[in-house]
Amino acid sequence: MTFPEILDRVGSMGPFQYLHVTLLALPILGMANHNLLQIFTATTPAHHCRPPPNTSAGPWVLPMGPNGEPEKCLRFVHLPNTSLPNDTQGATEPCLDGWVYNTTRDTIVTEWNLVCSSGKLKEMAQSIFMAGILIGGLVLGELSDRFGRKPILTCSYLLLAASGSGTAFSPTLSFYIVFRFLTGFSISGIVLSTVILNVEWVPTWMRAISSTAFGYCYTTGQFILSGLAYAIPQWRWLQLTVSVPYFIFSLLSWWIPESIRWMVLNGRFSKALKTLQHVAAFNGKKEEGEKLSLEELKFNLQKDISLAKIKYGTTDLFRIPILRHMTLCLSLAWFSTGFAYYSLAMGVEEFGVNLYILQIIFGGVDIPAKFITILSISYLGRHITQAIVLLLAGGAILALIFVPSDMQILRTALAVFGKGCLSGSFSCLFLYTSELYPTVVRQTGMGINNLWARVGSMLAPLVKITGEVKPFIPNVIYGTMALLGGSAAFFLPETLNRPLPETIEDLQNWRHQGKKRKQEPEAEKASQRIPLKPCGPQ
Length: 538
Prior knowledge:
- The protein is mainly alpha-helical.
- It is built from 25 helices and four strands.
- 67% of the residues lie in helices and 2% in strands.
- The protein has a two-stranded antiparallel sheet with strand order 1-4. Strands 2-3 form a two-stranded antiparallel sheet.
- Helix 20 packs antiparallel against helix 21 (382-399).
- The radius of gyration is 28 Å and the shape is globular.
- The N and C termini lie far apart (63 Å).
C-alpha cells in the first residue's frame, strides 16, 4: 500500500483538507503586502530644494534643467543680504537645507530624504530585501528537510511578525534595511513550507486547484494592499498593519499537522500514526483510522524508510544525473521567470496612471492568467504549460522593442499580458517543482530553485542600466531569457496524474516508463511494415 492509498483510507479530500488548505492560504493574503510594500512606503514624490533659512519672503526661483523642468537637486547660490535670482542664470549648489515635498503621504523617502544622491539607497533597501528571500530559500530549505516543515513554518510566521513590526519602529535607514532583510528571509520559509504541506496532504487531482487557490490569495492581497495604502498614508502605521496579523498566524499554525511523509522518512512512526488517526476522525472515518497499526504503517512504507537512511543534500541535486538534469532545467525556468517578472514590475511608471489604480491593474491581470493556467496544467500538462507561458512572455517583452514610446496603450497592453503570463509561470512552477522532486530532497530542491528566481529579481534592475547604451538592450536580454526558460521546460518530464515521487528510484522508474512508451509505438510500426519484393528476375 502506497501513501496515497493510506491517505484515501483516512480521507484524501474531506473537512480536514479544506481546513488545512484554508489555514495555509490565509497568510498568503499578506505576502503581497510585504513583497510590494515599498511601492507605497518608498514612493518618491515631486520635490525641490528648500530655500536657505535666511532668505526673505517672496517667490523662490529654481534653476531649470536641460529638459525644461525645474531642477530637483540643485538651487541657486544665495548670499546673505542679496536678492534671489529671478531668472535661470546664476551659480547653483546642492540642496544644503533639505527638500520640500509635494505630498501628503509620509514615506521613508520623505523621512530620510532618499532623493538625488541618496536616491539609490531606496533601491538598495529593496535589493537587500530580495537578498533575504534568496538566502532564506537556501538556508530554510535545508533546515526544513532536517527539522520538519511545520516548525520552520511557525518560526517563519513569528520572524515575519517580529521583523515587520521592527521595521515600523526603525529609527534609522540602517535599522530599516536590517529588518527588511529578516522579513525577506522569513518569507522564503513561509512560501516553501506552504507549498510542500499543500502538495503532501491533498490528493493528486486537487494539487493544481489548491495551488491556484494560493495564487489567487496572493492576487487578492495585491488589492488589499492598494486599499490599505490608500487608507493609511503614514508608512510606519502601514508597515505595522501588514505585520501584526502574522503573530496570529503563528498561533493558528499549531493546528497545521506535520507532513506524514517527512515523519515516516525520519522514523517518527508513532506520531505519524496518531496524526493519520486524527485526520481520519476529523474526516468522519474514525473506524478506518483505528484499523491502522504501527506495524502496518512500517510494512507498507518499508521501501521508503530504508531508502530514507541515505541523506541527500544540495550537492546531490547536481551529483545524481537525473536530479542534475531536472535542477538545471528548472533553475533556468525559475531564473527567467523572476528575471522577466521584475523587469516589468520595475517599469510600472510607464503606465502613466494613478499608483493605486496601477496596482489594481497589475493585480487584476492575475485573475484570468491563473484561471487559464489551472485549466492548462490540468488538461494539457505541466511542462507544456510552463513552456507556453514563458515563450509568450518572452515574445511580449521582445515586442516592446518595436512599439514606439508614444503608443502607451499598446505598450501597456503588452506589459500587462507579459506580466500575466509570468504570474501563470510562477503558479505552474511552484506546483511543477514540488511534483518533480522526490520527498527526500523536495524542500531542498524547492529552496534552490526559488533561490534562482530571487537571483533573477536582483539582477533585473542592473540590466536596466544597459539601456543607457541602447534603449532596446534591456528588453532583448529580458525577452531572450524568458524564451530560453520556456525552451528548457520542454526537456522536463510530465507529472500530470502521477503520484508524488518518494525516492530517487521513483524518478528513474518514470524515465524508464517514458522511454518504454516511446519505444512501443515505434516497435509496433516496425512490425507492421511489409517488406517489398525486389523487381526483376529472381
